[in-house]
Every structure is written in C-alpha cells, then in structure tokens.
Amino acid sequence: MAISKEERAQLKLLPIRGYCDWKGIPYTTDTPTELRMVDHDSLVVRTKLNRFVWNSTGVKGDLVDFIHYYELGKSDGDSKGPAIKNQLAYARFVKGENIDVSKLYEDNTPRYKFDYDKVFKTQETNVAKDYLVNQRKLNPQFVDNLLKSGAVVQGSRYREGDKLHQNPVIFPWKDVNGKIVGADRQGTEQDFEHYKKRGTSKKIFAGSDTSTGYNLSFGSGDKTLILFESPIDLLSYAQQNHQDMLKSNATLLSVSGTDAKRGLQYLNDAVAAKQAKFNKIIVAFDNDVAGFKAADYFNQFTFKNAITGESIEIERHIPYTGKDWNEQLKAGPLLGPRVISMHDNAKRLDALKKLAVQETQTGKPDYVDVKMSTIQPVKEVSDTESNKQTNKRRSKADRRKENALKNKQIIQEAMGKVAKYQQDPAELKKLLDFTATGLNYSARNSMLIQLQNPKATLLKGYKQWSADGIQVNKGEKGIKIFGAPTNLKTIIAENGEKIRWSDATPEQKQLANNKQLEVRSVKHYPVETVFDVRQTNATAAQLPSMLPNRPIDLATDKSPKHLDAAYKTLLKFADKLKVPVIDQGVDEQIAKRPMTWQGQAKGAFVQSKTNKDEKYILLRSDLTPTDKIHTLAHEIAHAQLHSLQSQNNWPTAIKETQAELSSYVITKNLGIEPGEKSVDYIAGWSKNLKALEGQNTGKIISQALKASTDVTQYLSDNLSNGEVRQPKTTKLLKPDKLAVVEQNYQAINQTNTRHM
C-alpha cells in the first residue's frame, strides 16, 4: 500500500529521541537540545532539527538513517528496507497510544508509563546465573542471593530485529521509597553481527524513571553514594569491596550511561524523602575519556547535605586493571579501587584530551616525545688540577693527605678503565648484574667495585666483617669506594687551600674566629676500603644470612599477586616523580609513534612544551604483566633523566641506551631474567656508547645506574620480602540479604597511585 504525502510528513515528524525511548537505546542529555549516545558518544542528536550527526564516521541524517546506520549497524550499500520497517512500527505505536509527538518532550516526564508487571520474566534462573557467574565471573553465592531477593531476575526470551534471543538478565530499578520504576535488560549471548561494539544486547525499558537507576544498599545505605555506568560494573565493584561498603553505609547506583547529574537527583530525592545523611559521593565511572569527562561534572561545584548542613565530599575511584570494574574482577585477584581526587581526575581528563589532539593550530605537536629529542650533546668540561703547594701541618694531617692522594690515584686508575664498557658487552653486563643484586651501592661505587674487582659480589669493611665473626684474609688488597658524604667545617686559607677545622693550627682557628679567614661547610666524600667475601674466611653456610633479600623474586614466583605488587610499587615511584601513568585509552597515540628496533612502541614518556610540569608516561593496554613492568621501568628512567628540565642533552640513541640500562637493572633486581638474547641487546648499547667518541662514557653509565638504584632502593623499602601470603577467610562485619557470608581475600597492598 502506497504512503500518502500527508503520511510521509507525519513520519518525518517522528522524533529520534522518542524512538530511542521506545526501543530503550541509552543516551545522555548534554543540553536541552542535544542528546549523545552512550555506546558511541560521538553521535549527537539535535532534537530541534530532529537530525543526528555521527562525528567519528561522518554519517548524518534523519530517523531512518539513524535506525539504518546506528541501531542496525548497516552500511551505505545495504537496503534501508529494515530501517523503514522499524520506523513504521514506531509510527503504529505512536498512533495506537494517541501520542502527540509535537508535545512529547515539553517536559522531562516520560510519556511511556513503566509497569514492572508487564516485563516478561521467568521463574527459572539458570541462564541468568550462567551469564553472571561464568561470563562475568561474579561469586556464585553472591549471584544466588541477588536472584533470591529479586535484585536480579531472568527475563523471558525476546525477539529483536530478525532474531529470537535467549533469556536476558533484568536489573529492576527502585526509587528511594523502594518502588520499582524502571529496569535494564542485559543480553546473555554474544552476537557481534548485531551488536558490534559490546557483542550483547543492552536496553533500558521504555518509561523508566531516570531520576533513579539500578541500585543496592549496604548497611543503612544513607552515608555514601557510589555511581556506576552499568549494573554489571556495580555488582563487580560490590563483590570486590563489600566490607568497605558495609562500613561506609553505602548505596550503589547505576546511571546506565555517564549522566552524572542523575546521581545528584537520586541523592536529593533520598534527602527529601528519607532524611538521608549522605556526606560522600564516589564517582566510579570507567577508566576512559568518557568516564573522566562525566566525573568532571562534580569538580565544577561544591555540594552540601540540606539536612545536616555539612559539605559532601567527592572522590573518584578507578580500577587498577582494565577499563571497568568487571574487567578488573575477571583479571583477579581482588584489588579494590584506586582512589584519586577530583582535581587529579580533571588533570587526567585534560591530559587525555591533549593526547588525543596530536597537533596544535601551528601544526606542531604540543606534547613532545622527550626521548626522541634531537638536541645535540654538549661536551663536558673537566676540572683543572690544582698545582698549589700545601703548608706543612701536623703529621696526622700529612698522613691523611698521603692516603687521600693514594686513594685518588687508585680511583682515577679504575675510572680510566671505564672505556671497556664501550668495547666489551660482557663487561657491561657484569656491571649491570652487580648493580641489580640490591647491595645499594651508589652508581659511582658500583662502577668502582667492578672496575677494581670484576668478580666482586658481597662487600663490607674490615670492621663490618669482624662484627659478623668473619676475618679478612691476611695480605688481601681492599677495594676503594666513596663513603657517605659528611659536611666538614673547613677554613679557606689565604692561598685558597681548604683546611679541615680539625687539621688547622691554633693560629688559623683564631683568625677564622676573628673572621679574618673564611669558614665554609664543605661536603666531603671520604674514601673507604671494603673487601669482597672471597677475600675472607666466610663459609658457605654463613652466606645466605648475609646476602640481600630481593623484595620479591619473580624468577621463582610470577604469581599475579607479585607481578601486580611490583607494578603498583613502580606506579608509586612514578607518582613520587609527579609523572602520572596512563595505561588505558592511549593505544592509538602510542601506535602513531615511530617504530623502534623491537617493533611497535610499548610506551612513551611525553612532556608538554608549553607547561613543563605536565609530564606523563603512556603504556599500551595490551602488554603482558612482565612487559608492563619492563616498559614502565624504561619510561621511568626517561622521566628521571630526560625531561625538558634536565641538563642531560644526549642524542636519542644515548637516551634510549640509558633507559635500557636502567630498566635492565630494575627488572633483574625483581628477578625478571633478560633471557639469552640479553648479551646481544647489551652489545647494541655498547655500540651506542662507542659511537659517542670524546664523550664521558662513565657519566652516561653512572646516570643510568643512579636512576636504577633510586628505583631498586624504593622497591626494597616498599615491597614485602617476597613471602607468599596465604588467603585469609574473613567474616563480614554485618551480613545482609545480598552478602557473601564468607569471602576469600588476598592480602593485597593497596595504593592510592594516580594512574590513567
């Protein structure tokens, strides 16, 4: 039957927004005249024009185009017949309900009255439980409690498009008075042909009251409000943090999207109807641009509870692993939330926006890859030797000077051999392996030890060995290193000579007291003598107690707990450097960077040219746990050594070499072995050093080793000693209807590290 001209005009008036409400397609309201789709937030509907534009694809049009391209996922070459069929079905619904589309959205009251009794449900729960437990990895007992209480139900099979789908999971929404006023429907089967982004159907039932959403309360539920993007995220978070929610009397609310204002509406309704004493809002949206953007709404205002008159604290929670809470739950073990401030949320949002926009109006990137700098190396100016004669002093001072001169000659002779690290990769590897043992020698001392005795392993002074009941063998030649610096009161003689106060004559001290000679506090590095364990009578049985324990040893135990602990401690170190780490949502930015000799870049250290305090480490989201640790260690070295504020203007190859030297030591210290090809890699680093003729190889290596030693000492101070803690069975404080009565928790060291 042909459609008349008048009927065509009526079809064109059908609102895209009304169709979304009818079909349960989730969207957010950015402004009174604009809607934004939840699944693809680059698709914007302009309600006054009743048109849409999909910015990321360039597609735009009317309702038929919206159905064709967005809902059905069709392309230009496909027939629009199915889209027109859906449009006509909506038209019949509007006509049958006597809906005046011209007045449909004069206010925010839904025109479709939600009725939970009309939602098709089943008594069976097997499909819903299988989906929640086996696909979403929720605790079986937790799921049983949800199903028994009616907090989750199994829906009847439903037809969508041309396919009959298996039973969905229904998440009923309750308002602040406990009445069911809406619901989410979550598909339980994978169907990427129809649902390309998620793989499953997802719908909000028509007429649902968007002043609320799917919610669960713990304890009294009137002190802390926690917001989520979906019911699955809400349940995943609940399982990971159940005891904390009981303590904080929390209500968890899903807004089924990223409309942060819905959380405030729910809070206001609860305060008005129940005199709720909420004093905290936690925004637990996803760890991505959309999540940070939505959460930023709460950074723009201050909030007070109208009942208590107290300010409402706002906090941001993001998962340690993955984009959302279910990804973290499936990754295991239970990790809990990473807590950041709303100020940090705003900074990360700004960083992600800047990273997404690679070029400024001038066509030049605002953020530069610091390690790719083309600044040419600057020659180091060496100090000139002083030829001034010293005055005669007491014999004690003379002996000290003689010893100092002898020690200086030994050290200079040792450092003169540093060029061998340019020539022999095996020697460079020995130095790196020694530094990685965790003996906590400075970079300079590590080099001095290896250059004087390449076989050295465990070193102590003569008195230290004696205190352990061990004697240094007679006739052994010690190794000279620098001791801890001390500030010495020093007199500056008329000829410029520096004289220790203890070595000065009474006349010199008198002149100094009368301010006729200058007195300074001079930092002094005493030269000390140490002996290797091979130079003593120590037995094999005594060695284990003297060797340093690695904080954890990933060579013998690569458990998820230890890998995660190592990664999180490196994150804390980066946080100490004030360099946020972004390990989600930046894969495209990293992919655009130049290929390295190892293939596509795994990470990057970037810094703003316009604001040098803005520095970030970017990591690909698909890295294995050990790759994440190695790459983060590499980028931390760049952050330590190669920021725009540093004076280390080495060529790119040297910067990369320093970062690799440092990360080698850090990962080796953790027990991650470099593998059989490590000598080949080190040969490449030696080659880079060799190519830098006339430059100070010792300085380059020393900087890299100092950077790594700073990290390994931090790891030693902040990681456990590697013992595997057994899971503990913890009783919940106050069981409720939805509680998992007993839950195993690993003793995870949680940190508040900033991480994007």
UniProtKB/TrEMBL annotation:
Residues 378-404 are annotated as: Disordered. SUPFAM superfamilies: DNA primase core (SSF56731). Residues 223-318 form the Toprim domain. It holds the Pfam family Toprim_2. InterPro entries: ArdC_N, DUF3991, IrrE_HExxH, TOPRIM_DnaG/twinkle, TOPRIM_dom. GO terms for molecular function: single-stranded DNA binding. It comes from the Bacteria. Gene3D superfamilies: 3.40.1360.10. This is DUF3991 domain-containing protein.
